[in-house]
Every structure is written in C-alpha cells, then in structure tokens.
Design a protein that fits this description.
By secondary structure, this protein is mainly beta. It has one domain. Helix content is 12%, strand content 46%. The chain starts with a helix and ends with a strand. The mean pLDDT is 92.
C-alpha cells in the first residue's frame, strides 16, 4: 500500500466524490464507498476458504481517520492492542483492523 499511497488516495478521493466506480488497481479490487457515520473506501486484496468458512483481506481509506469494521457494518470495535481493533457481530463472523497511517487501515474479516 505504501508504495502506491498517492495513487490510492487519488482513487479514494474519486470514489468519495462519486466519480470512480468499482474497478481494479494493480491486482487489487476497488470495492467502492461504504456509507456510515464515517465513510470508507474499501480495497479487497485477497481471500481464502469456501463459504461458510472464508477469510477476506484488504485495506481501506477512512475519510475521517476513524477505524471501521468490514464494509463499515455498524458493530462496535474493541481495542486489541496499539492501533488494532476487533469486531464481531455476535456470531462466528468477525474481524480485525489495524491502522497503517492516519487515514489508511488494513482489515481481515472471517465468516
């Protein structure tokens, strides 16, 4: 992410303005804007497993620099160390997010 930060920030800004639709950038899927109290632009970089036991990985740009759960679902985040948070929907679905820079975070979500 760091090597392509400027280009990815431009893509995120385009998405937030509504002028970028879902596409790919250097093998990473641009999933688009996920609305909520703090909007995010999510990028999918890979996954493994078969439903109902799958894990997805990627990163996202947080417009306000606030961490979020996968696809910005409305679930509470629990601190899990320095610049790390966990989330769960009360079932076996959950994930972890980690701050990379002020506005960028990585995620891993499992279902």
């Amino acid at each position: 992410m760091a090597a392509n930060q400027a280009a990815l920030e431009e893509i995120a800004a385009d998405c937030l303005r509504g002028s970028q639709t879902a596409a790919r950038y250097k093998g990473v899927e641009i999933e688009g804007v996920f609305p909520g109290e703090h909007r995010i632009v999510q990028f999918f970089s890979g996954g493994f497993g078969l439903a109902p036991a799958s894990t997805y990985c990627g990163f996202y740009y947080s417009e306000d620099g606030v961490p979020a759960a996968y696809q910005n679902v409305d679930v509470p985040l629990t601190p899990a160390g320095e610049n790390r948070w966990r989330w769960s929907d009360g079932t076996d679905n959950g994930g972890v997010t980690r701050r990379i820079t002020e506005h960028w975070f990585s995620y891993r979500a499992w279902f």
